[in-house]
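Comment thread on ticket #2218

A.B. wrote:
> Attaching the input chain for the structure job we discussed in standup.
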Amino acid sequence: MKIIARDIPPRAAWALEQAGIHPLLARLYAARGVTAKDDLDDGLARLLPPAGLQGIKDAARLLADAIARDQRLCIVADYDCDGATACAVAVRGLRLLGARHVDYLVPDRVVDGYGLTPPIARRVQERGADLLITVDNGIASCEGVAQAKALGLSVLVTDHHLPGAELPQADAIVNPNQPGCTFESKSIAGVGVMFYVLLALRSELRARGVFDTSNQPKLDPLLPLVALGTVADVVRLDANNRRLVAQGLKRIRAGQMPPGIAALLRVAGRQPPLATTFDFGFALGPRINAAGRLADMTLGIECLLTDDTARADHLAQQLDAINRERREIEGGMREQAQLLAENLFEDGEEPPPAISVFDPDFHEGVVGIVASRIKDRLHRPTFVFAASGAPGKEHELKGSGRSIPGFHLRDALDLVAKRHPGVLLRFGGHAMAAGCTVPEDRFEEFEQALAQVAREWLDAATLTRKLETDGPLAPEYRRADLVDTLHREVWGQGFAPPTFSEEVQVLSQRLVGEARNHLSIKLIHQGQPVDAIWFGRTEQLPARVLLAFRLDVNEWKGERKVQFLVEGAEVK
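C.D. wrote:
> Ran it. Output below, let me know if you need it in another format.
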């Protein structure tokens, strides 16, 4: 591992300080590209206007016409947290804006696979729908959209994934990544796209005289859902996404949220006034995702839709139990996948430039999480495959991949598909995460083909794990109140949480935890003793070491002390 301190533009840091920003925050913001205090304004008025999204006016007219005709609307969701929150935002928002018949359908991960397929389109038509609306999927569903149109349905696609060579022939498409769309926030999540569609629909209904500014429904109660889905989908937190997340967090901290979010916070042992982006990514998101991985995402969506507190609590407890089961399955799979990955190279050798592993006993609902763990451990683009459980698809393998900076996973799959026709039955995704299906008898061909692309695209520098930090931490900033201030800010993908690095003296270290797989460290930082913990680390550290760490507060018997959460080490 190579620990690298971020550049901190002095002029930007100084300007932020002069504008009244705390010196530590000014330094952190400047290192993340913030140049003026105005960039930190998270007011709703600073959101990018909906009109910038190509196709959004057509979408608004389509929905307004459907509401005027009292038509039946059916949302086709995705089975992850972004899809679940997008579905909840769509159902709640459309009902707020006057739609009386709003239904939803979420594909089964195993039986249906991803996206709007022809069988899903038929099921929507059988439910009596007039208008089919996709959320967080659909941009690659050419056959599914064609089937829906053939059945007489109108189709609105809302998505944020990268399109293929052909766009579906829908009545309207809203996706910032479709050709010709100039919307600046290409990283907006699926839930954010749907929220924008609702803003445009409300504007269209105002233009038609259905509402005016004094009596129009408020859509800001949907922002906690938008914030949750945005963080959980690990999209880049550009300025627009940060504003959406900040607005959602403000409402949650003020106690203004759907009962389902409150129930999920309770079951995770979190307090709404102290809610953070970390809670979205590591407490709420995994519990909702667990339903789509092991059970039925309807549970997650219903938890987010209900206004009954008792029902929300019951559903949150179910989701918590499923998530515990998910963790158990993941633990066994992770160990086996790690063994398979390590068998690909000899001790002392570098791992291959890309990792692909498969085991007949793997659970397809957990392959993405396991791929992420292997990728983090070996710093290689990684795919983990499981046998498909769908009827008639027993000889297909479904894989989920996670990548490293510098390797665009979906583009790599596209090149594999072109070079090896038939080796990929289906694929899609983003730069850092993607999914694909391969015939079982061509798995080795896929493995070698992906590794070949990685050999061509990646060099030694890219294959070396780099951990960017914010450099040394001045001892006067090692305070519990300042840590609380840092935690309240919006951090995430592309706007990394503060991580500091410094050479420290290690006084003592011991293994702790039930499995004795965490390293508890006592160290000297800037001449003063500090406690630190490195989760998942079992190897001992030398007496002096360059550590990368985040800040946390440990509470014990009413005393609050700053501790370091170690992220990595570089031995000089």
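A.B. wrote:
> Thanks. Noting for the ticket: The CA atoms of residues 303 and 562 lie 36 Å apart.
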